[in-house]
Amino acid sequence: MSLCASPSPALTVVRMGFMPLVDCAPLVMASVLRLDERHGLKFQLSRESSWAGVRDKLLGGGLDMAQALYGLVYGVQLGVAGPQRDMAVLMNLNRNGQGISVSQRVVALGVTDLASLAQVIQRSPRAMSFAQTFPTGTHAMWLYYALAAVGVHPLRDVHSLVLPPAQMVAAMQRGQADGVSVGAPWNRLGVVEGVATPLLASGELWPAHPEKVLATTAALADREPQLCRAAIMAVLEASRWLEHSDANRLAAAEILAGDAFVATRTDAIADSLLGRCDDAIGGWRDAPPMRFHADGEVNFPYLSDGMWFMTQHKRWGLLAEHPDYATVAQRVQRLDLYREAAASLHVPLPSTVLRSSRLIDGQTWDGQDPVAYADSFALHSTAASPSL
């Protein structure tokens, strides 16, 4: 992979991929506010149509860096999400902001929460279909985890299909999907268009969960550490700007709604950025909001964040054997580059590389014993799934 020659000798062009989702905001705002230029770079933003496309362009050299699903990066690292390639997570981009919605047809059957959804699935004469965005990605793992928490086996009791985020609402509308697991603003758009009802915010499944990352190949990170540090710094500054005020978030919503980025309603994006959610059953409520910075707490690439996705890949048969969780995470999570970039901006660093969280089923994840954790679930898959 080679970086593009810059039209200005003072700037290095970085081909930066993103998906039309609210959590592309740090990359977009780094470019719009010219924070990239402050650090000697020019982000050449590239709007992608699918996560498989993001993967292929990263591996094939069409992109230098990209907004990426955590589970996509680790799926590639372990060779279960396409060709094996050593990957690098430079930083976390956001927490929360995803969700599971069901179609109005499903709501009409009496579904009001996960427990009632499980009952409807069990008595349905056909297997219900649920869409997610990439087989090893975050949205698949949120869907699988939520269903399993109420006794529904996500690989046996329902049909799972893969769709790009922007196609989710239409898939529910035409009856292709009974429910979806997707990122903002598409759950909100389902409500606005009268097609769907949000059932569970991802922050209710795992409070302050990791979501998208700034990813590249390990080869580029090893070859261009200074460039990677500069990119991290630009995105960190954009993340800090997004959380400075509601006014900044609303300004970002106006920009993101444009055709070059998310290309949808400004109000739906603003609701996501401000943490507002209409669940269409109980009325308006505050969902755990999408966060981009929180004094760097959001952005630090905790080893335990990457390890969790590997435990779920093992749980659902994507991995036949347990990997060396800690060793793989230490290779992928580029703590060295992040720490140097954060220190340059006086962004606080945590005292530990592992963090503890309690998920919706009562399980605590702290990264201490990933093998035991992956094997602890009542619902799991014993047979390895084929590579993707």
How would you describe this structure to a colleague?
This protein is of the alpha/beta class. Helix content is 40%, strand content 17%. The protein has 18 helices and 14 strands. The protein has a 5-stranded mixed β-sheet, sandwiched between helices. A hairpin with a 5-residue loop joins strand 11 and strand 12. The longest helix has 18 residues. The radius of gyration is 20 Å and the shape is globular.
Short description:
This protein has helices spanning 25-32, 35-38, 51-60, 70-77, 104-107, 114-123, 138-149, 168-173, 186-192, 202-205, 218-223, 225-242, 246-256, 266-274, 303-315, 325-332, 335-344, 370-375, and strands at residues 12-18, 41-47, 65-69, 87-92, 98-103, 129-132, 159-162, 179-183, 196-201, 212-217, 276-278, 284-286, 357-358, 364-365.
Q: What's the structural domain tally?
A: 2
The backbone outline, from C-alpha atoms, is: globular
Sheet with the most strands: spatial strand order: 2-1-3-10-4
Helix count from the secondary structure assignment: 18
Structural class: alpha/beta
Quaternary state of this entry equals single chain
Characterize the main sheet: 5 strands, mixed
CATH architecture of the largest domain: 3-Layer(aba) Sandwich
What value does the Rg take, in angstroms?
20 Å
CATH class of the largest domain equals: Alpha Beta
CATH topology group of the largest domain: D-Maltodextrin-Binding Protein, domain 2
- Stretches where pLDDT is under 50 for at least 5 consecutive residues are 280-284, 384-388
Please bin the fraction of helical residues. 25-40%
Total beta-strand segments: 14
Query: Averaged pLDDT, please?
Result: 93
Question: Roughly how many Å apart are the termini?
Answer: 23 Å
How much of the polypeptide forms β-strand, as a percent range?
A: 15-25%
CATH superfamily of the largest domain: Periplasmic binding protein-like II
